[in-house]
Amino acid sequence: DLCPWKHHNSVNRGMDVLEKPPPQRQKLDVSIADLRESLAAPGCSDEATRGTWADKLKLKAASDVEILRAVAAALATPGEEAVHAAALVRSIAINPQSAVAVSKEVAPALCSVLRRQKDGILLSWSLMALIRLAQHPETHPTLRRAGAAPSLSLFTRPNHRGRVAVRHDLLASMGLAFLSSSSSVEIRQEACALVPLRTIPELVQLLRQRLQLSAEEVVAKKVFCGMPVDYRPRFAAQSLTLLCEASAAHSAIAWQSPLPRLLCQILGGELPNDAAANLPFGSPDVVEMSSRCRAALLFHAK
Q1: Using an 8 Å Cβ cutoff, are 155 and 168 in contact?
Q2: Is residue 222 within 8 Å of 128, Cβ to Cβ?
Q3: For the whole model, what pTM was predicted?
Q4: How confident is the model at residue 275 (pLDDT cuts 50, 70, 90)?
Q5: I need a labelling partner for 189 at 20 to 30 A (CA). Which of 61, 81, 272, 285 fits?
Q6: What integer is the mean pLDDT of 215-234?
């Protein structure tokens, strides 16, 4: 029917529907700080996972898009909420599936924080969050699109001003080491080339210290790059392994460090394994990672 007034009325009826405001998305009724506290594993200063009920809450939070968007929004605003948001990312990305879900919503915001290079404590927790995500190869496509490698590369030089107690350069180097395991040749080469060779002996020291100290001592002494967190020996061993697998130059430096002797002690049972600590993550323990590292060293020594 081409009658003008009928067409006009039908348009008006359509406009009446469109003029109604769209339903508003409900906001979180809890602050990011409170959310971080509620998801912290009981009795663990570093908010780590220990196979407890807290892990289930973390995984649930990591699959909640509204929570992740609130975290991303908090990262974009200055203040304590941004710090809590970055720490929360590290706390809930406890396995590959959760890390992938978190990185899709939060990775651009984390990289943006790093590029702004402001607020030391926020940078520290943002670097911690990013390397936790980068530990899982499944996140690498998302991290590449977010610009993770260039963002991390801003911090690979040591801070000579003495104002920052946290070793941002070592944290960034670990993140790049994890990215060096990417299936993308371009990402792998870029990430590995950005890791300074001097990083190898320091990563070896991190591995040795975690094998010799208790979790409580590690947190109290801020062994992990100046941060009050625990870390698994496997975490340090993984970064060393990936660098030695990807780069003959880094492998050559590793041969000159205490690493070969340390690997022998781990594989020979002279130093403790961290299999129990890795169980909730479903990831290889330090013995398995050390075996890979030894193979990489021998490969490049041929």
Answers
A1: yes
A2: no
A3: 0.84
A4: low
A5: 285
A6: 91
Hunting for tokens 């809890």 — which residue is that?
30
pLDDT digits (tens, 9 = 90+) for 245-259: 999 999 999 999 999
Residue with tokens 């094998």: 211
Q: Which two tokens stand for residue 123?
A: 């940078």
